[in-house]
Every structure is written in C-alpha cells, then in structure tokens.
Write a structure and sequence with these properties.
Layout: E1 2-6, H1 10-19, E2 27-32, H2 35-45, E3 50-54, H3 60-67, E4 72-75, H4 82-92, E5 95-98, H5 113-117, H6 120-125, E6 129-132, H7 140-151, E7 154-168, H8 179-187, E8 191-194, E9 197-200, E10 209-212, E11 219-224, H9 228-236, E12 242-248, H10 251-263, E13 271-273, E14 276-278, H11 280-286, E15 298-312, E16 315-326, H12 327-334, H13 338-355, E17 363-366, H14 373-378, E18 387-390
Parallel strand pairs: 1-2, 1-4, 2-3, 4-5, 5-6, 6-17, 7-12
Antiparallel strand pairs: 7-15, 8-9, 8-12, 10-11, 11-12, 13-14, 15-16, 16-18
C-alpha cells in the first residue's frame, strides 16, 4: 500500500516520522509546495521508501497527478484546500484523510465540514473512504465522545474542552497552530446544540464559564468556539440535549482578538492599501512567528478532552476522557511542539488502522462514526496517553 502525505509543516512532519517507525506502507511520498522543507523532512527520516515530491495543494492537476499511484492521501495542509484535494482523490481513485475543516459554520471562501460530508455518496459509490477531521480536536475528541457514549445507556451532554497553558521563550505573543485558523475560529459565531436545535452565539461573549481541567492545569475560564465536533456529534450520537466546544483562552489573547475585530484586522476580505490589495488578517499573521519555528521554545502543557454526561443502570454518570502532552516532551520525541504532535499522531494511527483493515467504512465520514476501541488501544503506544476521569460525584460549575 502506497501513501501520499500532502503538507510537510509541523503536523505533516509528525505524521511522516510516526509512520516511519513501522512498515505499514510500501512507499510514503512526502509532498509540499516548499521543496526545501519537504527535502528536510525526508532527509531527517532517512528511509529509502520515503520520497520527496513538490506538489501544490491549490492546484487540482498537481494533486491528482501525485495521488494517481497511491492508495491513501493524507491532507496535512490548511483546510482551505480540502475540497480541491478531495476532488483530486476521487479523480485518482485514492482514499483520503484530513485533520480539520474550517468549522461547522459556513463562511465565504472557506470549506466547512458539511461541504466535505456532502461528497459522501460520491466517495461511497467509488468504494473510497474520506475520513474528515481526524486530528486531535476535532478527531480524538470525537473518538472519546463515541467511546464514552457507547458505555452509557443514555447520553444527555457532550462537552469538548481544550486548554494550552504555555509560554514561548523569546516572544511576548505567539500562537502554537495556524494563526489564521486561530483568529478565524475564535471570532466566528460559536455553534451550540441545545434541546435538539443548533444555535449561534456571540464570539467571546456567549457561554463563557469556568471548567476544571486535570491538574496541574486546574480551573480555567473557557470560551465557546465554532468547532467541527458540535456540528457532527449531535448528528451521530442520538439522544443528546446539549453539545458545545470551549477553549481556555488567555486574557491576553482575548484582548488581542477583541482589538483585531474592533479595527477590522481580523478580516479576510482584501482591501486596497497604497495601491496594493491585501487581506488585513494576512498582515497580522505575517507579523506572528510561524508555529513550525516554535518547536523547542514552547514550555507548558496542552490538554484536550471530552466530558460526557448521561445515565448507566439508572444512575447519572459523568466522565471526562482526555489526553495531555507537554510541549517539552513533544519536542524531545519529535522535535515539534505539542499541538503539532497531538494533531499528527492520531492521523498516523488512522492511516495504520486503515492499512490493517480495521477501518472498513466508505464514504465521507467523521471520527464519531467509527469504532473507537482500536484508536483508544493504539494511541498510547505512540505517545498520546488516554485517561478517563470519573466525575459522577463531582459536577463542574
């Protein structure tokens, strides 16, 4: 079985390095528009069956040609190109996995999860898998939701929570994953699922509360964000009354976001500046450090988990299933920061499970439609610990 990994940033590098530890794939093509970056990754891996190729993810023909002789394509570029790559996979007859979309809320010029899932019938009829949003959140969080839900008799609430309490040496302000994505998803109207209905709230205002993360992170203020899980979990896990996604955002980042929104620097619409058309958000992100360059400089802990409330044997139960990784440990293991590490490994695990014949579904689907047990069993082997905390007797505020 042959594999193409498209995108050799931090996440793509983690995927390639993880898959290099075994012999699941005969040939692994590492591809990127940046020839220097892809050669760097392949040389670091140092295996004959890992090869470098220059591919432009924005060019349908370029992707189709690269995908033509491979069985599976892993899309590790920004979500903006998801549909181009999915269409190229359909044309080439290749299976497909990515790690995120542009969220569950439709925005001009972006690719939301429902646009991707709309290709379900075409992939299924072609006998192909398109596993969408298989990173950590979304991805592992949906696996956790399915795992805990399957253990309960009824499920009432599924709440996804994310916290990264870290500092970056040498920077007053930095973001650990795509700044463009971070700004966009935090300033989109957050999506909630309540009493059988989807509702939109106000960015940085609706649903602000405190959540108790495992120590040493502890109690943190969390903000509702438009995230893919809220769009898919209620559709795939029946009986839910409530579902949302919330980040623990620092006061500094919240203030930066509010200022950007106030003066329009969060906009992705081009404006003219002294005869040159630019996207205001591009100006902001170009002034921030590239997340791939932060490896080794980030110190702290990243925690992602799913809280499920329901009933078992007539008793109310509440469990928080999570994974936690320090940036220091991620750098020691992969020379990457924790966000890239946590996002890349689940994709590599999914690729392995597919190669082993343990993912037989076809069509465009998400992780909450899969059997979670093989993931939960295999993730810790590759450095993604899985912990289940029983909170049945201690309810969060």
């Amino acid at each position: 079985m042959n594999l193409l990994i498209l995108g050799m940033g931090g996440v793509g590098s983690v995927i390639a390095k993880t898959l290099a530890k075994n012999n699941k794939f005969d040939t692994v093509i590492c591809a990127d528009v940046n020839e220097e970056q892809v050669n760097k990754v392949v040389q670091a891996i140092g295996r004959d069956n890992f090869r470098a190729r220059v591919v432009n993810a924005a060019d349908f023909d370029s992707v189709r040609e690269a995908a033509r002789d491979v069985d599976l394509v892993i899309n590790a570029v920004i979500p903006r190109f998801n549909l181009i790559i999915m269409e190229a996979c359909l044309a080439a007859g290749s299976h497909y996995i990515d790690m995120a979309s542009d969220g569950p809320v439709i925005l001009p010029g972006r690719v939301d999860i429902f646009q991707q899932l709309a290709l379900h019938d075409r992939f299924r009829e072609a006998g192909l898998l398109a596993l969408c949003c298989m990173g950590v959140d979304p991805g592992v969080t949906q696996i956790f939701a399915r795992y805990l839900a399957d253990e309960m008799d009824t499920v009432e609430e599924i709440l996804v929570r994310d916290a990264d309490v870290s500092e970056v040496e040498g920077y007053d302000f930095a973001l650990y994953f795509s700044p463009d994505t971070a700004i966009e998803e935090c300033l989109q109207p957050p999506l909630f699922y309540e009493n059988g209905e989807f509702k939109l709230g106000d960015a940085l205002e609706s649903g602000v509360e405190y959540f108790d993360f495992p120590e040493p992170i502890g109690r943190r203020k969390v903000y509702a964000v438009a995230h893919e899980e809220v769009g898919t979990i209620p559709r795939n896990i029946t009986g839910l009354k409530k579902c949302d996604f919330k980040y623990a955002l620092s006061d500094q980042f919240v203030e930066v976001l509010k200022v950007l929104r106030l003066i329009g620097l969060d906009s992705s619409e081009p404006i003219e500046v002294k005869g040159v058309r630019v996207r205001p958000r591009d100006v902001v992100t170009s002034l921030l450090p590239n997340p791939v360059d932060l490896a080794g400089k980030v110190k702290g802990l990243a925690c992602v988990g799913t809280l499920v409330r329901g009933t078992k044997d007539g008793r109310m139960v509440e469990k928080f299933m999570y994974t936690s990784t320090s940036h220091e440990d991620a750098y020691q293991a992969m020379q990457e920061q924790a966000v890239s590490y946590q996002t890349g490994i689940p994709v590599a695990v999914a690729a392995e499970l597919f190669a082993d014949g343990l993912i037989l579904e076809r069509g465009a689907i998400t992780a909450d439609q899969l059997d979670p047990k093989p993931f939960v069993e295999r993730l810790p082997r590759y450095g993604i610990p899985v912990v289940i905390e029983d909170r049945s007797e201690i309810r969060s505020d």
